[in-house]
Predict the 3D structure of the following.
Amino acid sequence: MDLSSLMFPLLLVLLAVPLFLSARKQKRAVAEQQSLLNSLEPGDRVMTTSGLYATVAGVNDDDNTIDLEIADGVVTTWLRQAIREKVVVDTETDAVVDDVDDVDEVADGVYVEADDVKAVDAKPAQQESKK
């Protein structure tokens, strides 16, 4: 057997394997997204593909839409495919700090005592150009 006669079948196998694996990965991702969309029910917290966080207010299976409450009393209708992911709501309550002087703040990655923090004007200085 000649080495050149084995190169072509080997080349085909080397090209076919990554295509097969990527097709399986894509099929699995589509199945996961479809199961997510089918599992949505009122009260779930979601994020849309445009980055909007909302709460599911209602699901309409007839026209494949979903009603999202984006603020108190503000309900909008979206296509179900616009939902990117379900957001896990943290139910733990944070500790309440009574004395602000005891709190350390983080500014630019450096811990700073609360007493050392001074008010900083957030607006950049604007210079007027006179020509």
User: Anything to note?
Assistant: Strands lie at 45-48, 53-60, 65-71, 74-79, 83-86, 104-107, 110-113. The longest helix spans residues 3-38.
